[in-house]
Amino acid sequence: MNDTAKTINYIETELIPAMVKRRVLTIADGEDDGALLDYVDVKALQPDGTFMLTVLFKAKVTLRSQKDGTKTREYHLAVKVTPPCSEEMYMSCQFDTLFENETIAYTEIIPTLGKAHLYPRYHYSHRKPREAVMVLGDFSVDGWKMAPVIVNLPLDHCLLAARELGRFHGECYALKEKNRSSFDSIIGKFKESRFGADIGEMSWMEVMKTGPKRAIKVLRESPFKDAVPEDYLQKLAKVMEDPWGVQKRSVIPKEPLAVICHGDYLRNNIAFKYADKMDPAKPTNVMMFDFQTLRYASPMIDFSVFIANSTGYDVREKHFETIFQAYHGELVRTLCSIIQTNPNDLPQYYSYDSFRREYARYILYGFAIASSFLMILHEPVEDTFAMENMAKEEIIEDTMKRGGPSLDKELAAMVYEMYELHEQYGIVLE
């Protein structure tokens, strides 16, 4: 029996029956109706090029009432489990922390915001030695779909995603403004989910160091080569010799703009609904999910990661301001609506100019993520963990070419945009 078959067997014969026995799954919400497990069928979800550290299964479950055999209820569930891996890899990926943070999001933050219906339904989670599990509702049965492309979302998708991020940040700012004690209690439970473990000389560190070198190299060969001074490129290369340090410093919360952040807001963790019968390809709603890298930091770590990893230069060149205005406008509208104030009465740090300057400060963070991660979105890796068995030279060679010319174009544009923004706001690389 292979690993997938073993996990399916575990879900069908242990996990789901235990959830029914403990009344996590019931015929009617909130009622102890003595439900019996009538049927369960589990299938592994194929990633279709979407990068996932965890392994996802879909489960169809039917319950029958013990008191009234005619009453039934059907559940469609998404089960996230940690993949089979060595203890060293399990610890370095910080799976325990990832699942703990996501549980906090679903059990404490989202209910506090009062918008649980805007997110996947949470049912259950547990963490054991070298095993973490989370069970959510399968939102695909309600018409939600992943975006139709792996990278470079179309403008209509970008605008919806930006507004949703603004709404989420606005609600979290409102909680911070209205109930600081509750807000502090929540963020005090966050665990460092990405930088808590030292990845040392692991293979991914080589990817993170090589990605920026590729970006600088292709910039020098691109149409932008005369627009970016050589001294800026040299400073960028120097700073990015320690990409891990750049990212760690960027997520340190700084007041007054620090807020609860999704932590990994990009195309992979966003679902869209298409409910316009006249235009089936037009997205009408958006949902964020996967809160495993939840953190308290600048809102621009979310926005910069989204822009760098989910939009193409062809969209940003013409529509960046429109996207940023959509984000900021929704944030301010949401915040003002909840705390019942006029936008003009908000502190200056909530202004558009303040947020644009904040983005200039944190665009390097988005670049640091994208320069190593975009290659996997452009050209997916079949087995991410197999990289640990590759020689250093093989990793460098793969990082320098994976994704091909289309990624080269995006990386070069990203360096150019970063330079322009740093010049505009007087940001010095150091």
Strand content: 5-15%
Q: What percent of the residues sit in helical stretches (DSSP H or I)? A: 40-55%
> Termini separation (Å)?
53 Å
Order of strands in the sheet with most strands: 1-2-3-5-4
The overall pLDDT average reads 92
CATH 2nd-level architecture of the largest domain: Alpha-Beta Complex
Name the structural class: alpha+beta
Assembly context of the chains: single chain
Number of domains: 2
* Annotation, overall tally of beta strands: 10
Q: For the CA atoms, what is the radius of gyration?
A: 22 Å
Task: Output the number of helix runs.
Answer: 13
Q: Characterize the biggest β-sheet.
A: 5 strands, antiparallel
Output the helix-strand order: HEEEHHEEEHHHHHEEEEHHHHH
By CATH reckoning, the class of the largest domain would read Alpha Beta
Write the layout of secondary structure elements.
Blueprint: H1 3-21, E1 35-44, E2 55-65, E3 72-81, H2 87-93, H3 95-113, E4 122-128, E5 131-137, E6 144-146, H4 155-178, H5 180-187, H6 203-220, H7 230-239, H8 243-250, E7 259-261, E8 270-273, E9 285-288, E10 295-297, H9 300-310, H10 313-339, H11 352-378, H12 392-401, H13 404-425
Antiparallel strand pairs: 1-2, 2-3, 3-5, 4-5, 6-8, 7-10, 8-9
Helix pairs in contact: 4-5, 4-10, 6-11, 6-12, 6-13, 8-11, 9-11, 11-13
Write up this protein.
The chain has 430 residues and is an alpha+beta fold. It folds into 2 domains: 3-137, 2-Layer Sandwich (Phosphorylase Kinase, domain 1), CATH 3.30.200; 146-425, Alpha-Beta Complex (Aminoglycoside 3'-phosphotransferase, Chain: A, domain 2). 49% of the residues lie in helices and 14% in strands. It has helices at residues 3-21, 87-93, 95-113, 155-178, 180-187, 203-220, 230-239, 243-250, 300-310, 313-339, 352-378, 392-401, 404-425; strands at residues 35-44, 55-65, 72-81, 122-128, 131-137, 144-146, 259-261, 270-273, 285-288, 295-297. Helix 9 packs across helix 11 (352-378). The radius of gyration is 22 Å and the shape is globular. The chain starts with a helix and ends in a 5-residue tail after the last helix.
